[in-house]
Design a protein that fits this description.
16-stranded antiparallel barrel, 32 strands, 13 helices, Ubiquitin-like (UB roll)
């Protein structure tokens, strides 16, 4: 038996110790675990099964990538991301060995597409109408969340039309493996009308005043016309804010308007709405201060404000004042000026002290001005109407005026100017976007009078010839007694200068009861804007007139002018026009002075002037009050009489409606209308919307006017009054105007009323 190493001789001990060390090292190698195997690398990724969506879209969602280690957690995230695209019903992943690593194969099963959309149960609205209310279309992926969303849109539509009990159920029927048919099963239910809206808790403000600010209305006899009496949750939610604003505008700062209570009667045909209100105390405005202002002092900022100390606190007026102050800053280039009103309420004194904390910001300049949407109109035609240029200091007032000028070209269906501030520098780019409309117009008008009988008028115009803004007009008037032809051309920027140039040629014949008149002539004119709202022009006209077939017994006024005469005249005019829209103004005014002086050669010598002033006042409910007045005076000189055809003939759709041409004026001994050398006309109109989206408006009018002989004194008591109503429709086929005037001072040979109309169509 061997002895232990320690008991061995010394020379042997060394060998034993060495062997022991080697043995321990061997055990260490055996005991320490081997390192784990490294994860295999992803050598390839394959997408299988995607047909309706690009594979690149799927690849972009994956976190696993070729060349990176395979991780099961990343694959799980990939599966979630692919599901998140919304196009797939099932996603499976296969893993196989490939080139020393692994290949990931994503097997996708797409959701079926919608092969057809149908509606069942709908009686009040046809399928075409309902399709307008949904966003899902044939060919779309049958995404359950999208289908449910569109079912909700249909339900909202029915409820907005008063079918509060309506229900919509979506039914999906499989047609094939990759297509389904979608049916919306609709139960319309009975239409529910709002029977009563009750306001509870109101003492300071009557219920009638509260209901007036609400968009939700009770049903009444003519609800089928006005559309009132329909319940809409969204509209009623907005009404809560409107009621709250009303109370805040009356000084009730802490007024609370609770959630409305909505209840149906047993038959589910009538709706009752109860709105609880807690008014609180009324407050007045205390001190009004400003802070942070350096461009304007406090006196300048407070000038003209509605919010003043001692008055009942009015949050609406405060908002308007803030907007007005910000507008002042924006007109000085401070495009990002802002005001934070800090309201300090004193409950004991019932006052609200207001501090306008002004953040003026930097002065901005105009960067790039980009124009889009103009397929026909040249850029320069739009750009020259801009009141701001690149590099100018930003000015909100000039920006608004630029919009008005571009819109008043009447070349575009829609105009928008979007200011786009740059992120890192004080510059604002302007994006002018227009939607062009047809600028060619074929207009046809007609009317009936005891003189002209039935007459027709035709006019062809092109307001934007060659996209340069040139205005071309061809006009003809035909009746049993009149034939008129006219051609004119106008260039608003002659030779690309801010000067307008115009030229015209015309031929006109008219068979008056006592004589016939034939005139042939032409004109040439130039004009210029003298300031932003003021302009003027001057026109030279050369005309030859022939008076023939004078009846026996005609007055000397007529017989003296028998034969041929030539008129050489010059017509300077000046005007100021601040209307917001030339075709359909709602605010602003226009005043013009038009004069004519004849005698620069030719046979006729006369002077004629007309001053024409009109103003527009916006009223409640988008109505507009229009007031217009005209005064004209004309007289011959150098021993010559005023020609018959230069006299004033009052009556007709453009002067005094309800009367025929010349009825409101002097007559000769034979009772024929001979016009006057003076005229005075007043027109008052109340213009109101009938159907805003259709651009249909109604008008109520009162006219009073007359022409006077030179020997007569102008008297308001001698003006011929008329009244009436009409329709004005800016239709897709062009403007249509129909007006019925009633003669309030009927003479023996006059009709009691007169209908006149104009209508047109675009081409």
């Amino acid at each position: 038996m061997h002895e232990p190493c320690l008991k061995q001789p010394a020379e042997k001990n060394l060998n034993c110790f060495t062997a022991l060390i080697l043995f321990l090292m061997f055990l260490t190698v055996l005991i320490v675990p081997a390192p784990a195997n490294a994860a295999p690398l992803v050598r390839d990724i394959v997408i299988q099964g995607g047909k309706k969506i690009e594979k690149a879209t799927v690849y972009s969602k994956l976190k696993s990538s070729v060349g990176e280690p395979f991780l099961e957690s990343l694959v799980q995230e990939d599966i979630k991301a692919i599901y998140g695209i919304g196009y797939f019903d099932d996603v499976k992943v296969e893993i196989e060995e490939f080139e020393g690593g692994v290949r990931l194969i994503y097997n996708l099963k797409e959701k079926p597409s919608i092969a057809g959309i149908d509606f069942q149960g709908n009686k009040e609205y046809d399928a075409d109408k309902l399709k307008e209310k949904i966003s899902i279309t044939i060919g779309a992926i049958a995404n359950p969340s999208l289908i449910s969303e569109n079912a909700g849109k249909l339900l909202s539509f029915y409820q907005s039309e008063g079918y509060w009990n309506a229900s919509v159920v979506q039914i999906i029927k499989e047609i094939s493996e990759d297509s389904v048919a979608l049916t919306f099963q609709i139960d319309e239910g009975k239409k529910v009308a709002i029977k009563e809206i009750a306001i509870e808790g109101n003492n300071a403000i009557p219920a009638k005043k509260i209901k007036k600010v609400m968009a939700t209305k009770e049903s009444w006899l003519f609800s089928f016309i006005t559309g009132s009496g329909i319940y809409s949750k969204d509209v009623l939610r907005g009404d809560i804010e409107r009621i709250r604003d009303l109370y805040n505008s009356e000084g009730y700062i802490y007024a609370v308007v609770s959630e409305p209570e909505v209840a149906l009667n047993e038959e589910k045909t009538k709706l009752f709405i109860k709105i609880p209100v807690s008014e609180g105390e009324q407050y007045r405005t205390g001190d009004v201060r400003f802070s942070g202002n350096s461009v304007f002092d406090a006196g300048e900022l407070s000038a003209g404000l509605k919010t003043t100390s001692g008055e009942i606190f009015n949050r609406s007026s405060l908002r308007e004042d803030i907007d007005a102050i910000i507008e002042r800053y924006m007109e000085k280039g401070y495009a990002r000026a802002d005001i934070n009103p800090i309201i300090d309420v004193n409950s004991d004194r019932k006052t609200a002290n207001i501090t306008m904390a002004v953040n003026e910001g930097d002065v901005f300049s105009i960067g790039r001005i980009e124009i889009s949407g103009n397929t026909k109109t040249r850029d320069k035609v739009i750009r020259r109407e801009m009141r701001l240029d690149e590099g100018d200091t930003y000015n909100s007032k000039l920006l608004k005026r630029s919009y008005q000028r571009i819109n008043n070209l009447n070349f575009f269906e829609n105009v928008s100017i979007a200011p786009l501030p740059r992120a890192a520098e004080p510059l604002i780019d302007l994006h002018v976007k227009v939607e062009e409309k047809l600028t060619g117009m074929l207009s046809v008008g007609g009317g009936y009078s005891s003189v002209d009988k039935f007459m027709v008028m035709g006019e062809i115009t092109q307001a934007n010839l060659f996209g340069k803004g040139l205005y071309l007009k061809l006009k003809a008037e035909l009746s049993s007694v009149r034939t008129n032809y006219n051609i004119s051309l106008r260039d608003p920027w002659f030779m690309d200068k801010p000067i307008s140039a115009s030229a015209s040629l015309y031929n006109d014949t008219y068979e008056y009861p006592d004589y016939d008149k034939k005139s042939t002539g032409g004109s040439i004119g130039f004009g210029k804007e003298l300031s932003e709202y003021v302009g003027g022009n001057i026109v030279y006209n050369l005309e030859t007139v022939e008076i023939t077939d004078v009846v026996e017994g005609a007055s000397s006024l007529i017989t003296d002018q028998e034969g041929t005469s030539t008129t050489s005249s010059i017509s300077p005019s000046v005007w100021r026009d601040t209307r917001d829209n030339y075709l359909d103004p709602t605010t602003g005014s226009r005043i013009a002075l038009n004069t004519t002086v004849a005698g620069l050669g030719g046979d006729n010598y006369f002077a004629k002037g007309v001053i024409d002033s009109g103003r527009y006042f916006p009223l409640f409910w988008d109505t507009v009050l229009s007031l217009r007045g005209r005064f004209g005076y004309a007289s011959g000189f150098n021993g010559e009489e005023l020609p018959l055809y230069e006299r004033f003939y009052v009556g007709g759709i453009n002067s005094v409606r309800g009367l025929s041409f010349g009825e409101a004026g002097p007559r000769n001994p034979n009772g024929e209308r001979i016009g006057g050398n003076k005229e005075l006309i007043f027109n008052a109109e109340l213009i109101f919307p009938i159907a805003k989206e259709a651009k249909l408006k109604g008008v109520l009018f009162f006219d009073a006017g007359s022409a006077f002989e030179n020997t007569e004194n102008i008297s308001v008591g001698k003006l011929r009054p008329t009244t009436g109503a009409g329709l004005r429709w800016n239709s897709p086929f062009g403007p249509i105007r129909l007006e019925w005037g009633f003669n309030l001072d009927q003479k023996p040979d006059e009709t009691s009323s007169k209908i006149e109309f104009t209508m047109g169509g675009v081409f």
